[in-house]
Amino acid sequence: MPSSLFRAQTALCCMLPLALNACAQPPTAVHQQQQELTAEGELRIDRLAHGLHHPWAVALLPDGSFLVSERPGRLRRISATGQLSAALAGVPKVFAEGQGGLLDVVLDPAFASNQRIWLSYAEPGPDDTAGTAVATATLGKAALSNMRVVYRQEPKLEGPNHFGSRIAFDGKGHVFISQGERNQKELAQQLDKLQGKLVRLNLDGSIPTDNPFVGRANARPEIWSYGHRNMQGLAVDPRSGRLWQSEHGPRGGDEINLPEAGKNYGWPVISDGMNYLTNLPYSETIGRQAPGMERPYHVWAKSPALSGMAFFVGHPESAWNNSLLLGALAGQSLIRLRLNGDRIVAEERLLGTLRSRIRDVRASADGHIYVLTDEDDGQLLRLTPPKR
């Protein structure tokens, strides 16, 4: 069914008097299907569920069901057949303003035995302040329990923007947490502040002794790398164990980095982006490179507004094998970067006919890809890539 017709029918349902009560109830599975011709062949798109209010992240559960976070502060289950649950109890209170709210949700590396999940969110503070936080909890059928905050961005600040945030595990007992500089550019360069920093912790929330700034005066020991703007994509390459990270530039300058310990990724001193108001470099920006600062690994001159990212590897039967997938918000597409090792050799834009902001993307072991659309009536989509 064409996307425009699907949307029109959904809108009409909620306008008809006899359907008002139905629209107010938890939505049921949609199971609409369409195809899109891509550079490698036909892509199949299945709509598994809708009725999600600005969903932010999806975690794939072992039984084939899903956990989805909604930015206003709700966490929902979606069954393998697309049935949407009521909001789970026990979710921490969130600062649901601007870009803030409930953000990432991921399964603990030992989820099969401990049923633990990780959540990142904008945590409210005193006097209308907020900061990025990460908590762990035990997942139950209808509620979370054993909630424990393992990370808080300090200090909390006023303002509704640039919280990040994604969570990734390196398979060596560490967790990486991405975040933003809270739209206060200069903080990204200040090592005694946590804004604009990629953080690395042990899985119990303690600080690894080999973090690059441990023992250094006037530097936070949680920091792995710094000089970041607003990191909304984070993933470890299963082939190499290397961490990849994407972040929003200002007007232009969206970038991918391969962050390394202790390195400075430049914001706002170096940037490929421009001031939104003047279309000129910000006053703090001296150019696109500077001594002691890292150039982006990959950069877009026109910002697609990058969000979730996932590697699609280990599927030799698929034409998309060895790809990096990134959600694009302003670009209203799924970006596929074809990889040769770490080298990006081609780019393809997908799902443009949906005209939807793509907020998250995850790849499953069975070769499917799942994406979330960031809308009032957000959808969970399952993609089946073309075969070779």
Number of strand segments? 25
Structural class given helices, strands, pairing?
A: mainly beta
The coarse silhouette is: globular
**Major sheet characteristics:** 5 strands, antiparallel
Helix content estimate = under 10%
Count of helix runs:
3
Termini Cα gap: 26 Å
Identify the strand order in the major beta sheet: 1-2-25-24-23
The mean pLDDT is 93
Beta-strand content estimate: 35-45%
Q: What string gives the helices and strands in order?
A: HHEEEEEEHEEEEEEEEEEEEEEEEEEE
**Rg:** 20 Å
Short précis:
The chain is mostly beta strands and 388 residues long. It has helices spanning 3-15, 20-24, 111-114, and strands at 32-38, 41-52, 55-60, 66-70, 74-78, 102-107, 116-124, 129-139, 144-152, 157-158, 167-169, 174-177, 197-202, 223-226, 231-236, 243-247, 254-257, 298-300, 306-312, 323-328, 333-340, 343-350, 358-363, 369-373, 378-384. The protein is globular and about 55 Å long.
Describe this structure in words.
The protein has 388 residues and is mainly β. The protein contains three helices and 25 strands. The protein has helices at 3-15, 20-24, 111-114; strands at residues 32-38, 41-52, 55-60, 66-70, 74-78, 102-107, 116-124, 129-139, 144-152, 157-158, 167-169, 174-177, 197-202, 223-226, 231-236, 243-247, 254-257, 298-300, 306-312, 323-328, 333-340, 343-350, 358-363, 369-373, 378-384. The strands form six sheets. A five-stranded antiparallel β-sheet has the order 1-2-25-24-23, with no helix packed on it. Strands 6, 7, 8, 9 and 10 form a five-stranded antiparallel β-sheet that branches. Strand 4 (66-70) and strand 5 (74-78) form a beta hairpin. It is globular. The chain starts with a helix and ends with a strand.
